[in-house]
Design brief:
Blueprint (H helix, E strand, L loop, with lengths): L5 E6 L2 H9 L4 E5 L14 H13 L3 E6 L8 H14 L3 E4 L2 H10 L5 E3 L8 H9 L4 E3 L6 H10 L3 E8 L11 H6 L16 E5 L2 E2 L12 E3 L4 H6 L4 E4 L6 H20 L8 H10 L4 E2 L1 H4 L17 E10 L4 E6 L3 E2 L3 E4 L2 E7 L3 E3 L2 E3 L1 E2 L4 E5 L9 E6 L1 H12 L7 E10 L3 E8 L4 E9 L1 E2 L7 H8 L7 E11 L2 E2 L2 H21 L25 E6 L2 H10 L3 E5 L11 H10 L3 E5 L6 H17 L3 E4 L2 H10 L3 E3 L8 H9 L2 E5 L6 H8 L4 E7 L2 E5 L3 H6 L14 E5 L4 E6 L5 E4 L3 E3 L4 H6 L4 E5 L5 H15 L15 E2 L9
Parallel strand pairs: 1-2, 1-11, 2-3, 3-4, 4-5, 5-6, 6-7, 7-11, 10-12, 23-27, 29-30, 29-41, 30-31, 31-32, 32-33, 33-34, 34-35, 35-41, 40-42
Antiparallel strand pairs: 7-10, 8-9, 8-37, 13-14, 13-22, 14-21, 15-20, 16-17, 16-22, 18-19, 18-21, 23-24, 24-25, 26-28, 35-40, 36-39, 37-38, 38-39
Helix pairs in contact: 1-9, 1-12, 2-3, 2-14, 3-4, 4-19, 5-18, 9-10, 9-12, 15-23, 17-18
Length: 812
């Protein structure tokens, strides 16, 4: 029998939470006022979370709490208290990104299940196995994984798998986007994303502007998997997740109820599964930037972007056929129904929108109009003829959805059985049992009396016991036996019924509560003795020319390899190893940030070769390659994409066997210093940091055709410019992933002494993003500063535009 997947709904505030529960969610995920990846949602206080958990458990619904941001060390105390509180409240799981928080939860509240957030960028089987071995109950897979890849994971692991099925998509792999923080200090890894992907950009190839048919080059369409639900269910995915903690409660109500119906429809009759026109329209009306499911299909990413508008477009309502400038009215030929109170917007006018206050049809004001009608509607902005008008809000739909979460009478009910044996001379008893096996038995102080006149009948008792009012309970079976002629006052029947309801409500809720564990203290961290005389100078290279330049410039350590960028000559690891050994330099094999299961075979061969050659270790950027490198027996450097952001995540990574750790580039100098006292750490000090890696290839999408990709990325130089004219270079790799580099080069040569004093053991130049001609010059400047030969080095001498990154300012 096909297993029914869990339907997991978002809640950014209390109304959305109730909307999710009442419309059929099996579980709801929500966040607190702090430490959640949606800091700009309404969110919940701890007391509200406690109330929400009880509310949900009473109705048979689970609650998962998001603690899925990177945590600063000064926040760890509050994070520990939060974990302990959530455990006591009976939360069904916490969703985490920070490895240090994950380990702290395992130690403080081992009975509280842990779900690995999509922010952990789990995108291959080895990464899933890594978390499974840590005792994580569920993994939220990267949204870029195909259905085939998801199936492969389910076949070889026992851990629960959660996938997104509806809502907004990120253009970057989640957990790997630094664009918001680099632009304005608002870190997406800490819940403060400013959504720069929804802004206007211009593409240039070799300095020439490219026509992109829309300027929103990083804005994806929204995910919609209604047509693929059967395949996802059959793949064995345990949980279907709807995105939307920033959306209004009506959106939550409509999307949840639609997916509830679709899942139940398939489970009831797989062969007759369908998605109705009305269901498609509801999802489109509630919110859409157009829809896509391309990643799940494993197809080319062409057509997945909403380049013309990054905002909700609603549904097409008609076409403009005229405009009265003096009266500010548009004339529209309708292609769907419109009524007073609906919201409308115009094609190509992002900020232009109106609520309909007047509709004129054939010279008369009307409350509504239908398809084919030509109507006049007030509209402040002039809209050219031929442009489309969209219905962005359907008043009737919104009102009907609002009733689902504002009515005092619950929609969601819990079936109960009631039984009572009524005998004169005995106290009145009532048993109530729910469908989950919870049972209560209550007694009245009232002794049943023999009837003097008109006896109380079984029908009257049943009638009173059935009046469960606005409670969540719904009677489905009544077993009332009255022996002889008896009399029971109506008030007594009502009182004992209400007492039973109250007791059963408490039973359903309290069984999830957990006992306090005493004082909730942040666990101590075991540190190594940090003894750094002079930090090593590390240079990351990816071709023979950069390798040669780095060695000539004075690098102590070479990181060789990584992604193979289009148009470049890849390094031969054996030749690179021999070159480094002959020059007396250490060498580590570098591995790509994103490694699919198909690509993992090649990575495994490279790591085995590295082991055979005797390289000094491997640099890894995801939990899958970390596990594989450790299994092969290589010393491991945990690179910056693994988001080590605090002392606890550092200690966790070291405890898992990392020889060294590259700290997150979002850390301030003070944060770096705190962690560096605990053991060997590395910091990136120079180079264009990668702010996004995307499975979507913009160049392939724009220049490709049905016959395949022309590989323009191997011939031209591509850059995107934002509205402030900042330039972000693009690189494409051999797996057709797009890498977006920061607009300015990181340069810390003027402040190198501060990092040296902080106790950093290795300083890294990210030279894969530099021209080979500059690698030697930049490396030599840093070498001279470290050796004390030259102190007055200025960034402007080695780079045109530069930034100190977050070392001096940190992030929100």
């Amino acid at each position: 029998m096909t297993r029914r997947p869990e339907l997991l709904a978002p809640a950014g505030n209390w109304e959305s939470f109730v909307a999710a529960v009442e419309n059929g969610a099996d579980a709801v995920y929500l966040g607190s006022k702090t430490l959640g990846a949606r800091a700009y949602a309404g969110n919940f206080t701890l007391e509200e979370i406690r109330e929400a958990i009880d509310y949900a458990h009473l109705r048979g619904v689970k609650v998962f709490v998001t603690v899925n941001t990177l945590v600063k060390d000064q926040q760890m105390k509050n994070a520990a208290k939060m974990l302990c509180s959530l455990n006591e409240y009976g939360a069904d799981a916490v969703i985490v990104q920070d490895l240090g928080l994950l380990f702290m939860a395992k130690e403080l509240v081992p009975e509280l299940p842990i779900h690995a957030s999509t922010q952990m960028t789990i995108h291959n089987t080895e990464g899933v196995r890594f978390l499974e071995e840590l005792g994580v109950k569920r993994v939220v897979l990267a949204r870029e994984m195909s259905l085939e890849e998801i199936r492969a994971v389910k076949q070889v692991t026992d851990i629960e798998i959660e996938t997104f099925v509806h809502g907004a998509l990120c253009i970057s792999y989640s957990g790997q986007c630094l664009l918001s923080s680099m632009i304005g200090g608002r870190s997406g890894n800490r819940g403060h994303c400013a959504q720069p992907c929804r802004k206007v950009y211009e593409l240039e190839m070799d300095g020439q502007v490219v026509d992109t048919e829309g300027p929103y080059l990083l804005s994806p369409k929204d995910l919609n998997t209604t047509e693929m639900l059967p395949q996802l269910i059959e793949a064995g995915v345990e949980s279907f997740k709807i995105e939307g903690r920033m959306k209004r409660p009506e959106y939550v109500a409509g999307v949840v109820s639609t997916y509830r119906d679709l899942i139940d429809r398939y489970i009831a009759d797989p062969d007759s599964y369908f998605v109705s026109t009305e269901e498609k329209l509801v999802l489109e009306q509630l919110f859409n930037r157009d829809f896509t499911d391309i990643y799940l299909k494993g197809e080319s990413a062409r057509g997945m972007m909403s380049r013309e508008q990054p905002y909700n477009r609603g549904v097409v309502a008609g076409t403009v056929v005229g405009y009265y400038e003096e009266e500010r009215r548009i004339i529209v030929e309708l292609s769907t129904d419109l009524e007073l109170g609906d919201g409308i917007g115009a094609e190509g006018l992002e900020d232009a929108g109106e609520n309909i206050t007047r509709i004129v049809l054939n010279g008369k004001e009307v409350d509504s109009a239908t398809e084919g009608d030509i109507v006049e509607i007030p509209f402040f902005e002039e809209v050219p003829s031929g442009k489309l008008i969209y219905r962005t809000l359907d008043r009737s739909l919104m009102e009907s959805l609002k009733k689902t979460f504002t009515s005092p009478k619950p929609i969601r009910r819990v079936p109960v059985r009631l039984s009572s044996d009524v005998v004169a001379g005995s106290v009145l008893k009532l048993e109530m049992e729910d469908s989950d096996g919870n049972k209560v038995s209550v007694e009245s102080d009232y002794f049943v009396e023999p009837a003097q006149k008109k006896p109380t009948t079984e029908e009257q008792v049943i009638q009173q016991f059935s009046k469960l009012g606005n409670s969540v309970f719904e009677p489905v079976d009544m077993a009332v036996n009255v022996t002889g002629d008896v009399f029971i006052p109506i008030k007594v029947l009502n009182d004992i019924r209400n007492l039973a309801v109250s007791k059963l409500e408490a039973a359903r809720v309290e069984k999830w509560h957990r006992s306090p564990k005493g004082k909730c203290r942040v666990p101590d961290v075991t540190c190594e003795e940090a003894d750094v005389d002079k930090p090593l100078l590390v240079v990351s290279v990816d071709d023979p020319q950069r390798l040669e330049a780095a060695i000539e410039g004075g690098a102590d350590v070479i990181y060789a390899g990584g992604e193979v960028f289009r148009g470049r000559e890849p390094l031969d690891l054996k030749e690179a190893f021999e070159k480094c050994r002959n020059e007396g330099r250490k060498i580590y094999v570098n591995t790509p940030k994103i490694v699919s299961d198909n690509a993992m075979v090649q990575v495994q061969e490279t790591l085995k070769l590295a082991k055979e050659l005797g390289v000094d270790g491997a640099v890894v950027s995801n939990y899958g390659t970390f596990r594989l490198a450790k299994e092969i027996g290589l010393e491991v450097v945990a690179d910056s994409p693994m988001n080590v952001f605090n002392l606890h995540s550092y200690a966790a990574m070291k405890g898992l066997g990392a020889g060294s750790v590259v700290l997150s580039p979002e850390m301030s100098l003070t944060q770096v210093e705190d962690v560096a006292q605990c053991g060997p750490v590395e910091c990136i000090v120079h180079g264009r940091l990668e702010v996004m890696e995307s499975r979507y290839c913009m160049i392939g999408d724009l220049f490709g055709s049905g016959s395949g990709c022309p590989r323009f990325c191997e011939e031209g130089k591509f850059e995107i410019y934002d509205e402030k004219e900042y330039c972000f270079p693009l690189l494409m790799d051999s797996d057709c992933r797009m890498h977006v580099l920061n607009s300015k080069e990181l340069c810390m040569v003027e402040n190198l002494e501060k990092l040296v004093r902080a106790g950093v053991s290795a300083l890294r130049i990210e030279a894969r993003t530099m021209d080979a001609s500059m690698v030697k010059k930049v490396t030599r400047r840093y070498r001279n500063v470290l050796d004390g030969k030259k102190k007055a080095v200025k960034c402007k001498d080695i780079t045109d535009g530069y930034t100190g990154g977050h070392y001096m300012r940190g992030v929100l």
